[in-house]
Task: inverse folding
């Protein structure tokens, strides 16, 4: 489960906080997929009400997301042991179809809930 939350916030973002809501709009109703170098895949679903669901295999984590000072922070409920809560990462805009690298992760934003 630790990989879910850390992978979920591991995308590099670089746009102003004033545009944060617009940046997240491409994620609503779509799937953010993070992959580790050893092939572990996590699917994250963001909602416009500030909630998210993350799945890795049969494991599911839910919580809230918020934009704070140029970063996106995910707070798992309940917290994941030995994992920062909230877990935060820099924020940048991406469109459906984009794939990018963020630290040890490959991240893709794909259409629909997958």
Result:
């Amino acid at each position: 489960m630790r990989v879910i939350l850390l992978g979920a916030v591991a995308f590099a973002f670089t746009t102003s906080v004033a545009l944060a809501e617009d940046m997240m709009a491409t994620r609503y109703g779509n799937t953010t997929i993070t992959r580790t170098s050893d092939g572990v895949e996590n699917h994250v679903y963001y909602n416009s009400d500030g909630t998210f669901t993350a799945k890795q295999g049969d494991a599911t984590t839910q919580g809230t997301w918020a934009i704070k000072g140029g970063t996106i922070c995910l707070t798992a409920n309940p917290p994941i042991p030995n994992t920062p809560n909230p877990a935060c990462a820099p924020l940048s805009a991406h469109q459906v179809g984009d794939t990018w690298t963020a630290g040890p992760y490959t991240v893709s934003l794909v259409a629909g809930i997958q």
User: Anything to note?
Assistant: The first strand starts at residue 31 and ends at 35. Residues 46 and 52 are 5 Å apart (CA to CA). The helical segments are 2-8, 20-25.
